[in-house]
Structure formats: C-alpha cells, structure tokens
Amino acid sequence: MSSELVRIEIIAAQNKSTAVINCLEKLGVGGITTFQALGSGIQKGTFEYEPEENKEIRLLPKVLLLVICEKEQVKAIVDAVKVELYTGHIGDGKILISGIDNVIRIRTGEEGKAAIERSALS
C-alpha cells in the first residue's frame, strides 16, 4: 500500500471542465475522471453572497474532476488549477485533497504507484 498517492477532487462550474482538463493534460496528468453534478456552497446557488435574503438553496450545474497522482505532483496541479479557475467571484470552485491507501489496476493486478503509471495496452 502507498501513502505516496493522493486523490485530488476539483469542483468547478460546468463550463470550466474543458479548460481544467486541458490544464491537467499539459501537466502530464495521466488519468482524469469527470462527473456531472449539482451543488451549492455558502451562497446557496446565487452568484453573490446574500446572507439574509437568500434562504432557499438552488443547486447549480457543476463538474467534479477526480485525479489520482503522486504526492510530489500535488502542488503543481493545485497551483495550475487555481490559476485556471480563479475569477475572484463566488463559484470559482473547491479543491479537495486526501491520501489514498492503495490503488489497484484491475486488468494487470498492479498496485500503488504502478497502477496509475502509463503502461502498454497489451
């Protein structure tokens, strides 16, 4: 098992998914999984924070991008994604980072770091 592996989850506005994927590909990230989602943060689905006026939650379309990488890659990935997503407005997104106990590539049985490295398709 490997504590050298990290899971990065990026939650962003749906219209930012292609830009983030392109950003990750430029960094050499080998695997990206995306999910379509609905969500809201503290602003409850509005485009500006209105604490007293906005009591009903409105879920907005989001994309969740999942990346498993080596610990050494985290800073470069996070820095690049922050630059790509930053507007300074509510709704820029979130980045969640957590440790991974193990990864198993089902096809080959490889585990840990070997399971996320690029390998021949044969």
UniProtKB/TrEMBL annotation:
GO terms for biological process: regulation of nitrogen utilization. GO terms for molecular function: ATP binding; enzyme regulator activity. InterPro entries: N-reg_PII, N-reg_PII-like_a/b, N-reg_PII/ATP_PRibTrfase_C. SMART domains: P-II. One of its GO terms (cellular component) is cytosol. Pfam families: P-II (PF00543). Signal peptide: none annotated. This is P-II family nitrogen regulator. It comes from Selenomonas bovis. The lineage of its organism: Bacteria, Bacillati, Bacillota, Negativicutes, Selenomonadales.
